[in-house]
Amino acid sequence: MFEGGLHPSFGVDPLSAFFLAVLATIAIPVLIYMRGYLRGTHHGAAVAALTLLFIGALVLVVTARDILTFLAGWELMTLIPAGIILVNCADRPTRRTAFIYLAITHVGGVGVWVTLLQLTFIGPPSGAIATGVFVAAALIGFGTKAGLMPFHSWLPRAHPSAPSPVSALMSGVMIKVALYGLIRVILASGINPVLWGEALLALGVLSAIGGVVYALFQRELKQLLAFHSIENIGIIAMGLGSWLLLEGQGQRFWGGVAFIAAMLHVLNHAVFKGLLFMGAGAIERATQAHDLDRVGGLLRRMPWTGGTFLIGSMAIAGLPPLNGFVSEWLTFQSLIHGAGLHGIYGVSCALAAAGLAATAALAVLCFVKVCGLVLLGAPRTDRARDAKEVAISMRIGMALLAGLCVLLGVAPGLWLSTLQGTGGLPAVWVFILITGLTALLAWVRGARTAAPAPAWTCGQTVQPSFDWTSSGFTKALRLSWQWLIRPQNEVAVVRSHAIVRSVTYRGDVPHLFDTALYSPLIKRASVWTGQIRRLQSGSLRTYSIYLSALVVFALALLRLGLL
Amino acid sequence: MTLLLLSAGTVLAPLLPGTIQTLKARMQGRRGPSPLQPYRELRRLWRKSRVAPAEASMVYRVAPPLVAACAVCAILVLPTGVDGPLGHDVLVLVGLLALARFAITLTSWDTGSGFALMGAARDLTIAVSVEVLLVLCLVLAALPAGSTDLNAMTAAASGTSIWFTPAHWCGLAGFALVAIAETGRQPIDNPDTHLELTMIHEGPLLEYAGRDLAYVQWAAAARHWIVLALTATLFLPHPADPLGSAAAIAVWMGAACLGLAFIETMVAKVRLLRVPVLLGAGSAIALIGLLSRAFA
């Protein structure tokens, strides 16, 4: 796969070219947006310079053809965002976030080194155990960087801390580049594709459903979007998984369709997630609010930001006639045709299709909530009431990507309207008929304006305290799925002489992967490292003993012929 | 043919909820309204003026025509035996229904009305379980045809041989639940309720009046047409030739109205939190069908 020598070598094949195109598609609007975003901030120049370096590192990873350049680019791609996060804001919680990000991605990154060194210098693994270790190392290594569950823990922490345009690049491109590396390894590994396929399908379903479920309960917009990145990486992994299963079972045509579905979702997710992160940045600039429950009514006050954000939301919710629908439709098609495979492969594809259906429905729920809280209704704070539209360059950046959401939703119809084995997706006609009929029906309805009236609240006057919150809207889901997501509620009632003085309520949906999986793991690891730390006495004499012991040990091995 | 089906769907759709109302009233020993009552209501609404809450935006104004447009497009996607402009892919139809749901639930945030939001939240929560069941049933229907083209799926479901596979029976059982949920009928939702606290599909419509309400009411009737037509073509017995098939499907849609009225008379609405359990049971049946097919 990669050259092993010390000479840097570069190349572009169709796969690299596609990822370069995705990078360019996002980077250009991001850089235009950045002009307005960074004006008037501290360290604007440093953030801009580091962002350009970051883009350079991404190019390096995708074009590298020797292992040294690839790994150098890979590490730079990890380190530079941490630098940007710290330059942007260096308070204590942010420093901790940057540390966790670096720690997790580096521990996971070991898998990348192991797989690449094995492939370059030893060759494809042979034997059941070696194959198993190799697959696990590759999935953990690249999966951590891509944000696949359960290796995603850094992602919802790091994305919200970075400046919005950098989040757009990280979520839109960086995590996809990790999948690019995984695809290269899979192609070069020579391992039965069915094994990869089943693993990717399982991780994909977990990431898609897990990502969107936790996104629903986030209070901060950028954190919510970060969880949606996990969801969409899961959808891409489902596409890749069905590609490998279908290929492995000899269904070349549908395997190819599944691969196209995955790649199209890479592009589409980059476009709409870039757009949404930019929108989140613009909303943050205009209202200074981080809490979803404290915005409201921005569509009327910021029509450009609001309108493009609405388009991005519809795209990520997988609604026609926008781009998210096209790639989810193709992924569905490949999973449904995968369901025709015999035995366990067919069942796993059908289950993945059901999982994708749940994901799509949950994403609709989530983005109805987000759009409603942020864009619609009455403003909930004074800041939101006085919100002003953002700078022109930021609007251009968002409008470019919103236009792409529509274009990429319509243009594939030229090829997909006669795809055999499906009823066809004539996206051009879908777009024309939906918009045309809506306009026609609105015209038939007449120009007479509607009479204004207060909303119906059983005769009471409408007050701000009636405003619904994010957790109110998700309560039905929280209750009906509580066996799975285990929400925690706490009601404290303070009484004196049988009279209730105060009631405090605290509700939370804990991130089970953190509380049940990682916390015990980290705790145990701390104990172990505490033991190991005893070796580090700080005394020069001890270290010289270690050194001579090592030399003696190596000589002994040499003598015994083991080295 | 497409045009014929489109006009039949758009014109005859309100007849379905009307028929269900009449049949239900008869079963309960009342005289009840005529099956044409929905048409009279649409005529009355068309003459009334529209209402908009103070802070409502574009979304509130665009949603009713958009929802109706989605319903028209979905009717176009229904199987006709010939090529239509939108093709006949069943997943396109699912996408169109999702777009309509997105638009109408979004308006509840625009009005800020608590009742509307309650209904919207419930509608979207139930939709999660419904879509899982729906996709599993559609996989069961698509596999014999080897395609998600509704014309091919209808052809594959015709005749008698398909009834010897257990998967088809499982699909029928699952899709019956989908039909009840998507039409918003008991035991999942109660279309007759006038109590705001129990509304699901009706909740987000509370603020609408006049022609806006006429559009969304018609779209709700059209959803009956779409879902019952899908049930009849994909999961109920019908002959292969087009004319006999059309006749069989018309009979089955009438029978489905009778069945819905019967269920609504016999069964009370289940508790909201039990709905995912009910639909999950349907998914389990569909899954058994899938297993029986994959390991046959």
Please tell me about this protein's structure.
The complex is a heterodimer of chains A (563) and B (296). With 563 residues, chain A is mainly alpha-helical. Chain A folds into four domains: 1-191; 192-435, no CATH class; 469-508, no CATH class; 517-559. Chain A has helices spanning 14-38, 44-63, 67-88, 92-122, 128-146, 155-161, 164-189, 193-216, 221-248, 252-287, 298-301, 303-316, 323-338, 344-375, 382-385, 392-410, 413-416, 427-445, 470-473, 475-480, 482-485, 512-533, 540-559; strands at 451-453, 488-496, 499-508. In chain A, β2 and β3 form a beta hairpin. In chain A, α1 (14-38) runs antiparallel to α2 (44-63), α1 runs antiparallel to α16 and α3 runs antiparallel to α4. Chain A is globular, with a radius of gyration of 26 Å. Chain B has 296 residues and is an all-alpha fold. Chain B has one domain (2-294). Chain B contains eleven helices and one strand. Chain B has helices spanning 2-12, 15-27, 37-47, 58-77, 90-111, 114-145, 150-157, 166-182, 210-235, 242-266, 275-294, and one strand spanning 51-53. The longest helix of chain B is centred in the middle third of the chain and has 32 residues, at 114-145. At the A-B interface, α13, α14, α18, β1 and α20 of A face β1, α4, α5, α6 and α7 of B.
List the helices and strands and how they pair.
The complex is a heterodimer of chains A (563) and B (296).
Chain A: H1 14-38, H2 44-63, H3 67-88, H4 92-122, H5 128-146, H6 155-161, H7 164-189, H8 193-216, H9 221-248, H10 252-287, H11 298-301, H12 303-316, H13 323-338, H14 344-375, H15 382-385, H16 392-410, H17 413-416, H18 427-445, E1 451-453, H19 470-473, H20 475-480, H21 482-485, E2 488-496, E3 499-508, H22 512-533, H23 540-559
Antiparallel strand pairs in A: 2-3
Helix pairs in contact in A: 1-2, 1-7, 1-10, 1-16, 2-3, 2-7, 3-4, 4-5, 4-6, 5-7, 6-7, 6-9, 7-9, 7-10, 8-9, 8-14, 9-10, 9-13, 9-14, 10-12, 10-13, 10-16, 12-14, 12-16, 13-14, 13-16
Chain B: H1 2-12, H2 15-27, H3 37-47, E1 51-53, H4 58-77, H5 90-111, H6 114-145, H7 150-157, H8 166-182, H9 210-235, H10 242-266, H11 275-294
